[in-house]
Write a structure and sequence with these properties.
Helix content is 53%, strand content 15%. By secondary structure, it is α/β, with parallel strands linked by helices. It folds into 2 domains: 3-198, Spore Coat Polysaccharide Biosynthesis Protein SpsA, Chain A (Alpha-Beta Complex), CATH 3.90.550.10; 220-310, no CATH class. Helix 10 packs antiparallel against helix 11 and helix 11 (252-274) crosses helix 12. The longest helix is centred in the last third of the chain and has 31 residues, at 280-310.
């Protein structure tokens, strides 16, 4: 009987961690022996207490990146099959039904990374349903998100785990290094999981995207292949140029034209994603405006930190 190691990084997840652990236990049942390892990043709430009460093994590693949390959980685990799950993600009965085939695939061929795009809850709001629902994606991502990733220990060890120097985007880097070694990236929609804590409003969405964008700026290589990062910086520079030019020439129409360009790019992106029917593309344009702005500000913060460190 194969043991599964579930590795869950957490930070202030008291509202989620109990549900995450319960769904793992419920949907793996008696068919598997399992260990659940919660790696906490210094939570100030009841996360550790709840995880301990749920009989998870808890490791505490404050003030490190999430990539390091995942690695430390993997190093402390004992199973051949590693299942990385975020603290606000629930596995489903369908996931449990598919698990046997997935484990068999990995035991037969360890050179695979398997997972799926996290789905949204039934009671999800407009932003969650229209931005994050995998059913609405025109093109699946070319990597497996580490919020739900299943990998054989042999491949994980061969890659040296996740890159602990990156704050975010460690899953993209991990999959890219695996692909260069000949591993397959497998997105299996039958491995249905639910992300319960997607942003519910534009403010939370702004904070999430500002944080996520940091991975795009961690290296020239990552930036070069990130279309959102390139578009965000183009828009940022265009606005800054027009602001400066407007101030110098005292011609406000230059700034208005620039803002119109910004709006046009956001609406075009929304139409490409949602189509032209109904009013969803207008709402989508607003979301894209927040999206590009957050990622542009993330770049400004990145440059500012680099400058401060060099002083």
């Amino acid at each position: 009987m194969t043991t599964l190691s579930f590795i869950i990084p957490t930070f202030n997840e008291e509202h989620n961690i109990g549900e995450t652990i319960d769904r793992i236990v419920e949907n793996t049942g008696k068919d598997w022996t399992r260990e659940i390892i919660v790696v906490d990043n210094g939570s100030k709430d009841e996360t550790v207490k709840i995880a301990t009460e749920k009989r998870a093994r808890v490791l505490r590693h404050p003030d490190v990146f999430i990539s390091s949390l995942r690695n430390r959980g993997a190093h402390a685990s004992t199973a051949e099959i590693l299942v990385f799950i975020d603290g606000d993600v629930s596995v489903t009965p369908q996931w449990g039904s598919e698990l046997n085939d997935v484990v068999s695939q990995l035991l037969e061929n360890p050179m695979q990374i398997i997972g799926s795009v996290c789905g949204v809850a039934e009671q999800a709001g407009w932003l969650e349903r229209n931005w994050f629902d995998p059913a609405l994606r025109r093109k699946p991502p070319g990597y497996v998100n580490s919020a739900h990733m299943i990998v054989h220990r042999r491949l994980f060890d061969a890659l040296g785990g996740f890159d602990e120097h990156v704050e975010t985007g460690e899953d993209v880097d991990f999959c890219e290094r695996a692909r260069h070694r000949g591993a397959r990236i497998v997105l299996n929609p039958r491995l249905a999981v639910i992300h319960r804590d997607y942003p519910k409003n534009l403010r939370a969405f702004f904070k999430r995207e500002k944080w996520h964008a940091r991975g795009d700026y961690s290296s020239i290589q990552k930036f070069k292949y990130s279309k959102p990062a390139i578009v965000s910086i183009f828009l940022l520079l265009a606005v800054l140029f027009c602001v400066i030019l407007s101030v110098m020439t005292k011609k406000i129409w230059m700034l208005i034209i620039c803002l119109g360009l910004y709006a046009a790019v956001c609406l075009a992106s929304s139409i490409h994603r949602f189509g032209i029917s109904g009013f969803r593309w207008i709402k989508g344009g607003v979301v894209y405006a927040v999206y590009f702005t957050a990622r542009g500000i993330s770049f400004v913060e990145f440059i500012w930190l680099r400058v401060r460190r060099s002083l």
